[in-house]
Amino acid sequence: MPKHALDEESAVNYFLREEALPAFVRAPTLIVRAAVGTLGADRGFILPAEDAERMRSVIPDCRIVVIPDTNHYTVVLPDAFTQELLAFLGG
Predict the structure, then answer these.
(1) Are 9 and 15 within 8 A, CB to CB?
(2) What pLDDT was estimated at residue 62?
């Protein structure tokens, strides 16, 4: 595994620890999740629902949006994503 990939994975794992999040996230936060896993309807989620809920519980002013009928690779393509993002940004 290339060193940069290992460094990135280590950083992600550090910031997913709930005690680390509040110190670094100080702005309103939108967590966007795909409704379908990359390995099937309920398998292979990049961000499982439990992890998203855990992050929401420790990040002030945070909300979760699940985009229907999308996976990790397609979650930003539907109009639903754009609508949720614009609503979050106040537009």
Answers:
(1) no
(2) 95
Q: Of residues 39 and 34, which shows the higher confidence score?
A: 34
Locus of tokens 């393509």 = 77
Lookup result for tokens 């229907």: 68
Which DSSP symbol is given to 60?
T
Domain boundaries, the chain: 3-89
Alpha-carbon radius of gyration of the chain: 14
Element (H, E) at 58: helix 49-58
Which pLDDT value is given to residue 90?
A: 94
Rounded CA-CA distance 52/90 in Å is: 22
CA separation for the pair 91, 74 (Å, rounded): 23
Instruction: Copy the structure tokens of residue 38.
Output: 């990359």
